[in-house]
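hey can u run this one w/ magnesium ion bound, need the structure tokens asap thx
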Amino acid sequence: MAHSFVSARTKSGSGNSFIDARMPQQPKNGSKKPEVRVRGRRVGSAARMRFMRGWTVACKRYGWSSSVGKIRRTESGIEARVSFVHRNADLELGKTLDDVRGIFGVPSMSYALDPKHSSRATLSLIERDLLLEREGALWPGIDASSLSLWDPIDFGIDQLGQPIRLSVVGHHALFAGETGAGKTAAQNMVIATAALDPTTRLFVLDANEMLWGWEAVAERYVIDDMKAAAEMLDFVLSEHERRNKVRRRHGLDKWSRELADETGEGPIVLAIDEAPEYLRNKACQDVLRRIAARARISAIHTNITMQSPNATIIDTTLRNNFGLRAVFRVADSSASKVALGTSAVDASTIEREHRGVCYLHRDGLVPTRMRTFYPTPEQVRELCSRALAPRPAP
Ligand SMILES: Nc1ncnc2c1ncn2[C@@H]1O[C@H](COP(=O)(O)OP(=O)(O)OP(=O)(O)O)[C@@H](O)[C@H]1O
Ligand SMILES: [Mg+2]
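ok here u go:
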């Protein structure tokens, strides 16, 4: 594909010849289609013109030289492939994304990195926010008679309307956001999947009594008794240690799906609502830290929520053990950074009324703006009674 070049350098500076991406011209009177000229050639449509106009300004502002590949219109806006000259796309875009979004004058913007070339990325300008048109989309898993936690869980849709699925086994998850932002709704999808998977065992710590519906499904369920909470956590950690011995006998590095099939022992889900209530207790915190650091390899998935992430409650080491992080609206940008681990995006800019909208961080990827599905309380209750069909003893 022919690439058009955009550079922030000026003609007089280096004499470099590819500095000729002109600011797109306005259409002449009477001409229906606006056109863009790069190196004197007409190169495209209104979408291209719109993109090149903003991108040229961004390149000038940040001193970037870049080439621009395919530009296409999507359902929600414009998508463009860019390649930086001698620069890392993630570093450049990570620190400037919100400003670049402002240059384009769009409500939201994101980028996906090219896994093969660190200098390349696909930018998405979101002109029409599909997330806001999909309020309360139903969780596809709600009518299933059984599910497997080993399979990715339908979790929501991204800004382009594409499905987002979460593979939770082998990871821990943190859902953060102020009250009413959508954490429990998100956590319910994971717990419901565990409930509909007959090989999965569920443990619940429920400080605010918002997960009470799962009490009958859970192997252990604790509210605010810290001694009982610490005992539950100790038990989960001991399960990890027991599984370690079994998997080593099988010569395996982790508790795999095959080993689960052979032993009949599937994943373990430890769901904790409002985790700071337990993290403030020394005994609970010590064990929880060890579970977070070690238990992933035993197919133990810890899923915690918190309203106000702050560095004293969740330090970087603990946070980084939660590779999956969905951050709904939080109070300020520092809470967003504590939870997401990046300031490339800011979850405090999510509108309060946009419940279920969050930034999803997955290991090594730039957070994706998305909206979770919403299983209603009635659906959760109905699903819970279905899940209460006899489960095999562990
Ligand atoms: N994905 C979603 N789409 C639309 N509405 C949602 C979504 N998720 C949650 N909501 C709405 O937001 C309300 C609050 O959601 P939820 O109970 O999950 O919040 P929370 O973050 O757990 O709050 P708290 O910290 O008080 O427990 C729900 O009752 C529902 O009306
Ligand atoms: Mg809640």
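The radius of gyration is 24 Å. anyway lmk if its weird
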